[in-house]
Write a structure and sequence with these properties.
It contains three helices and five strands, in the order ααβββββα. By secondary structure, it is α+β, with helices and mostly antiparallel strands.
Length: 128
């Protein structure tokens, strides 16, 4: 089972990174992976495109959630060792956002970053 998991992780890494053609692609992928693991300090600003006013600003170790759509943005922020907050905002023709990386982060252009989390493969099971 351990050997199968390692082979699967390697195959996923190869497929996921096969589109990285240059140094900028590799660095971008590594920064995105770090941000998705709450290692990058970010500022997310929602603003009204008609008035130019900021509606909401979120700062911290934040990542764009996979449940986001064209009309809804979900942001998850790590607020403590095992504490997270999830924020939602509706998007429209006059409401948009930008995500800013606040601090520089090291991103190797020679090495791909692969994160293996066994807790995702064998999740906690709750019986009700």
């Amino acid at each position: 089972m351990k050997k199968t998991a390692i082979i699967a992780a390697v195959l996923i890494a190869i497929v996921g990174l096969s589109g990285c053609n240059n140094d900028a692609d590799v660095a971008s992928q590594n920064l995105s992976t770090a941000a998705d693991n709450f290692q990058i300090n970010r500022r997310i600003v929602f603003y009204n495109g008609f008035t130019g006013e900021y509606m909401l600003t979120i700062e911290g170790l934040c990542s764009k959630d996979n449940s986001s759509t064209d009309t809804k943005l979900a942001i998850i922020c790590k607020t403590g060792p095992n504490e997270y907050k999830k924020h939602f905002l509706g998007l429209s023709n006059n409401v948009t956002y930008f995500i800013e990386q606040l601090d520089p982060a090291a991103a190797s252009t020679y090495h791909y970053k692969v994160v293996f989390k066994p807790s995702v493969i064998v999740p906690d099971i709750s019986i009700k």
